[in-house]
Write a structure and sequence with these properties.
heterodimer, A: 300 residues, alpha/beta, Rossmann fold, six-stranded mixed beta sheet, four-stranded antiparallel beta sheet, B: 423 residues, alpha+beta, Elongation Factor Tu (Ef-tu), domain 3, 3 domains, six-stranded antiparallel beta barrel, 22 strands, 18% helix, globular
């Protein structure tokens, strides 16, 4: 293990333990893969947990159609290098089938619509566990999330009726049609993730490193510009040096003005930052309980 | 947040805080997060807005931990919330739990993974029922380090004699509960005295501040026993041409240390073998100790799988199909005396029935009640269960992993109870 930080080793041991519990307790297993750093770390942990066997997971990507081109290439390469099945389901298909209606206006986002596509995919593929990169430090509704999070037959989360989780005993028993979401890196902070990426030298999409990009400012958040995005009259697109602190749907991923070129520089930057990474997520700015509401509906 | 260089060996401390409304627990946590610069600007901004909207005069730091809509609306904490902060010395995970009696189960949950428990005592009120309850749960879950923070010292004029009197009372409680190493710190969470910075108002206190204490307290990670224990989670069989015969038993060491060459007995089959190699990803390692997630290969092809336990021949665990335990009931449906449950002990499962409810604990007075066998949510009782086949376990005091179990309702699949094996 190339980990110098003792706390990272403990977090890694815990995450691998959880991954193996998932392998033992479920049948049809996927890792929810967004192309973001947290899901890349999950895949790395799964690779370590089952070596020399192939990880017993498929990768499931819920594609909003609003992607950074590079994350798709990165995703395809990673899946083929590991020899794991890559499943992609499209929000556009859900819209075309009338399962969801597309949000309109300048703030339109497909973030919420993803939940429908995800739940449809879970049903279609008979998935009984979806492993996600959610962390408790991200957001206050997530701070109450379990490692093994039960979802009823409608895919919903009931925060007031969660199963107690004691010691390291995870209860994944369920009835037909129900499923679980599992979060192996629950106890990691953003800084832990970056330190781990650094110490394990995990390959990331170059979007995480500083690059030139066309951006604009909305509600104090810098957003990456893409041709399909509607701008308000006062908003102006300009090009500058930025990097992504999180990567998700392009319409709601904030970018950070940064000069960080290396992992070391990124870690120092994160360690010194005074704003949470969700502070740059446009989707969370909508209301106090935005995350809780989306999670109840089946969000990641 | 400051960061040490790449070579540091900062460790992780998990602690639990139990407290009731008004005892200053949220303020203490808020102050730790705030003074260690773990509250971010956007969170602070958000807190100020929410506090204003709720008509509060000061920024209410408890809103930081109350994450669910219902909690914010009702102004109460319902569930365990996990909080994270780090200092240059250590990284901390706080399991923040509500302290009212109706949330005993949440306190038990938070305590189950804690290295240390913080119990707040109001300096004006001294030892209350809830102090005893919180102390009892900490001792029941066998938390090694218990820190009593005598809070609101500013409201008793930072009086040394008030502190000393309370400390004497607490020492009596600790003694009764067999708490080995209690600590006492006089603080004012609101004013910041002895939380992060030493107090200028209590020159008579020569001990560490609260933060300094939790930064420096030695956590004995190998508490989980001297006796080596390795529960198997799953078997890794690549069946690829390169690793055709590889058969790795994946698991996390639950006690002691294992080394290649060690003789082991595989339970429940009782077959003997020896360790061929211990793998951590692509590496062979010389030893694996408590807490390490590894894969072990044996020198013989024997029957082992999920639920198996590897132990040394001369340090066998207890084997029985009758288990005595202290249980905390978690479910809204009371215990059904004739009901059948599933018992989970590490990776091992069996069916079980309740043989007897031996006594119930009054967790405010610490009295045992031998006449009441109705076990409802938040109750703590001593039970005897009968399992469908013998299980292999250790007493909880010796090993928190092989000595703990949960009961699952066969019909609803819910976790209905947590148990600590007494013998």
């Amino acid at each position: 293990m190339n980990i110098n930080n003792e706390h990272l080793k403990e977090l890694e041991n815990e995450a691998i333990f959880v991954m193996r519990e998932v392998a033992a307790q479920f049948e049809r297993k996927v890792i929810l893969f967004s192309g973001g750093k947290d899901s890349i770390v999950l895949v790395h942990l799964a690779k370590k947990a089952f070596w020399p066997a192939r990880m017993p997971f498929s990768l499931l990507h819920i594609d909003t159609g609003h992607n950074f081109e590079e994350t798709l290439k990165f995703r395809d390469n990673l899946a083929s290098e590991l020899g794991v099945e890559l499943l992609v389901r499209y929000v556009q298909d859900s819209i075309d089938k009338g399962r969801v209606t597309e949000e309109q206006g300048v703030n339109a986002s497909r973030n919420k619509a993803q939940s429908v596509t995800l739940l449809d995919a879970i049903e279609e593929l008979k998935i009984d566990v979806a492993v996600g990169g959610g962390r408790r430090d991200e957001e206050k509704a997530r701070a109450k999330e379990r490692f093994f999070s039960h979802r009823n037959e409608f895919g919903q989360w009931d925060p007031k009726n969660q199963r107690p989780e004691l010691w390291n005993i995870f209860n994944g028993r369920k009835n037909m049609g129900e499923h679980f979401r599992v979060f192996p890196i629950s106890n990691w902070t953003e800084l832990d993730v970056w330190q781990y990426i650094m110490s394990e030298r995990i390959l990331l999409p170059s979007l995480y490193y500083t690059h030139k990009r066309k951006i604009f400012k909305r509600n104090d958040v810098f957003l990456a510009w893409a041709p399909f995005m509607k701008l308000k009259p006062t908003e102006e697109v300009f090009e500058t040096e930025v990097r992504c602190r999180t990567i998700g749907d392009i319409t709601c991923t904030g970018v950070t003005l940064s000069a960080a070129q290396t992992l070391e520089e990124i870690v120092s930057e994160i360690a010194a930052t005074r704003v949470t990474e969700r502070g740059g997520r446009y989707d969370d700015k909508r209301s106090e309980a935005a995350m809780e509401d989306r999670k109840r509906e089946g969000y990641f | 947040m400051k960061l040490n260089g790449n070579g540091d060996r900062r460790s992780l401390l998990r602690f639990t805080t139990a407290g009731s409304v008004d005892d200053g627990k949220s303020t203490l946590i808020g102050r730790l997060l705030y003074d260690s610069k773990s509250i971010f600007e956007d969170q602070m901004e958000h807190l100020e807005q929410s506090s204003r909207r709720l008509g509060k005069e000061e920024t209410d730091l408890s809103l930081l931990t109350d994450g669910l809509r219902a909690e914010r609306e009702q102004g109460i904490t319902i569930d365990v919330a996990y909080r994270y902060f780090a200092t240059p010395e250590r990284k901390f995970i706080i399991a923040d739990t509500p302290g009212h009696i109706q949330y005993t189960r949440n306190m038990v949950t938070g305590a189950s993974t804690a290295d240390l428990a913080v119990i707040l005592v109001d300096a004006r009120k001294g030892v209350l029922e809830q102090t005893i309850r919180h102390s009892f749960i900490a001792s029941l879950l066998d938390i090694r380090h218990i820190v009593f923070c005598i809070n609101k010292m500013d409201l008793v004029d930072f009086s040394e004699s008030v502190f000393k009197d309370i400390r004497t009372d607490l020492a009596g409680v600790a003694d009764k509960l067999e708490i080995e190493d209690p600590h006492y710190i006089p603080i004012s969470a609101k004013k910041g005295d002895n939380v992060v910075e030493p107090s200028g108002n209590m020159g008579w206190y020569k001990g560490k501040t609260f933060l300094r204490f939790i930064e420096t307290v030695e956590i004995n990670k190998s508490k989980n026993g001297v006796s080596p224990r390795f529960p198997v989670q799953t078997v890794i069989r690549p069946q690829s041409s390169e690793h055709h015969d590889y058969r790795g038993y994946a698991g996390r060491v639950a006690g002691g240390t294992f080394r290649p060459g060690d003789e082991v007995v595989v339970l429940p089959s009782m077959l003997r073998s020896s360790i061929n190699s211990i793998n951590v990803y692509q590496k062979n390692v010389n030893e694996a100790s408590s807490g390490d997630s590894v894969a072990i290969t044996l020198n013989d092809q024997i029957d082992a799988g999920r639920g198996s336990l590897f132990v040394p021949p001369d340090e066998m665990p207890v084997s029985s199909n009758e288990i005595n335990l202290m249980a905390c009931w978690f479910n809204e449906t009371p215990l059904r005396p004739n009901g059948r449950y599933i018992v989970r002990n590490y990776s091992c499962e069996a069916n079980c029935s309740i043989k007897s409810v031996n006594y119930k604990m009054d967790i405010n007075s610490l009295e045992k009640n031998f006449n009441d066998s109705l076990l409802t949510m938040n109750d703590i009782a001593h039970l005897t269960i009968t399992t469908s086949r013998p299980l292999f376990f250790d007493p909880y005091k010796e090993n928190h992993i092989t000595g703990s179990l949960i009961l699952v309702d066969e019909t609803t699949n819910e976790t209905v109870a947590a148990g600590m094996i007494t013998e």
